[in-house]
């Protein structure tokens, strides 16, 4: 709920931001319900699912409580290791305590074994083996008297069609006498790889008001990382090395040409450092997660915050580069506050989304909540893209008019790279929507990691392109802003301008614009414009 509250603040901030900006602008099946019980009071700490006063909810002809779901690999004899990487995969029920009402307990005599609660472990692919599907659109989870006569199921139990391996698994727990509580302690070894869902089911109507407390531990052969998250540990290690290698190359060039370093290149150095820190933090967070089964809030918050800062700074870097900062203008002038406001807003939205998705959780947020979290980030990303390409267009026009061909060629390459990145991004978003639409139950969980990993790789590629285009060199100052007109002119152009007339007059005459027209040019208040009413831009 803290994350949702942060998003509300972010939305208010967005509306304030959009208002300030506009001042300067001119112009299912029943099974889905069972799997959807994410809104139940369930606390999750990594692969340890904790249940605190969890209340069973009436669904179909049963009372159910959603216990979690994870991708698990089958136990393997090929994994030989000590500690958690011992090749054993299991779900362990530890001190699972079911509590019924006094009214339900008093209906039974002392010393008898009576009401039962079943823990059902089912692989998503076997979901149709649970319950009776005789009537379309209606699922009967429990065996009633009528169904017992027609199907041969055991009355008062969950209807299941077991395979040769015993899946789906059913672990019954019985109350005895007039006791209010029944306790479950058991470990179930996983012999088949799949996405598993745990639900607790009570079939008897007298168990209305049933609650559950305790926790379950889910483990894979190589550790406690859930199956769909396990590939990320290797991925983050690889990306940390990639950022480190890029950082070494950049630092080498930086030190060789430290006398000719541009302010923009210092910003690039900061982004490389943030990227390397983010990947390293995520790697160690996942490593700790895999070894202990816990996801400590401290290191996760550090990773989330550094990641949000890196995303924000990366977008701001691309934006200011598109505006020509340090190349065709010395400062952002009046746009500085608006750029910082946009960056601050994006940081809040990105931080809120990442906190809810990562801090003390391994399950995806419900669809509506996730949409509420993603929407502000998507809106701001769209605004960034609009502002970036509008600024690039103005910068290219400005360089073309002033005949600064070296800078013009640089910015054309940069524009083409960004345009290609946008096209690839749109195509990937389409694939992501297709992937999720065709896999509502997470059956392709082993490929899930590719979806978010793509965005990390794309961000890294864009950073590499920027590093190549603005690499430190002895000629770095050739692309720097200078008050001298004709700084980028070729030798032939310099010869043409070597006359008694001042260079500025000749430059204006070649552009076909009268000097008087320039002096009478009104100030453009468009926030996307590169023109501003500051003295440094007038001198440019």
From TrEMBL:
<dbReference type="GO" id="GO:0005794">
    <property type="term" value="C:Golgi apparatus"/>
</dbReference>
<feature type="transmembrane region" description="Helical">
    <location>
        <begin position="332"/>
        <end position="350"/>
    </location>
</feature>
<keyword id="KW-0732">Signal</keyword>
<feature type="transmembrane region" description="Helical">
    <location>
        <begin position="410"/>
        <end position="429"/>
    </location>
</feature>
<dbReference type="InterPro" id="IPR009637">
    <property type="entry name" value="GPR107/GPR108-like"/>
</dbReference>
<feature type="transmembrane region" description="Helical">
    <location>
        <begin position="264"/>
        <end position="284"/>
    </location>
</feature>
<feature type="transmembrane region" description="Helical">
    <location>
        <begin position="370"/>
        <end position="389"/>
    </location>
</feature>
<keyword id="KW-0812">Transmembrane</keyword>
<feature type="transmembrane region" description="Helical">
    <location>
        <begin position="449"/>
        <end position="471"/>
    </location>
</feature>
<feature type="transmembrane region" description="Helical">
    <location>
        <begin position="32"/>
        <end position="51"/>
    </location>
</feature>
<feature type="transmembrane region" description="Helical">
    <location>
        <begin position="299"/>
        <end position="320"/>
    </location>
</feature>
<feature type="domain" description="GOST seven transmembrane">
    <location>
        <begin position="231"/>
        <end position="476"/>
    </location>
</feature>
<dbReference type="InterPro" id="IPR053937">
    <property type="entry name" value="GOST_TM"/>
</dbReference>
<dbReference type="Pfam" id="PF06814">
    <property type="entry name" value="GOST_TM"/>
</dbReference>
<feature type="transmembrane region" description="Helical">
    <location>
        <begin position="6"/>
        <end position="25"/>
    </location>
</feature>
<keyword id="KW-1133">Transmembrane helix</keyword>
<keyword id="KW-0472">Membrane</keyword>
<feature type="transmembrane region" description="Helical">
    <location>
        <begin position="233"/>
        <end position="252"/>
    </location>
</feature>
<protein>
    <recommendedName>
        <fullName>GOST seven transmembrane domain-containing protein</fullName>
    </recommendedName>
</protein>
<dbReference type="GO" id="GO:0016020">
    <property type="term" value="C:membrane"/>
</dbReference>
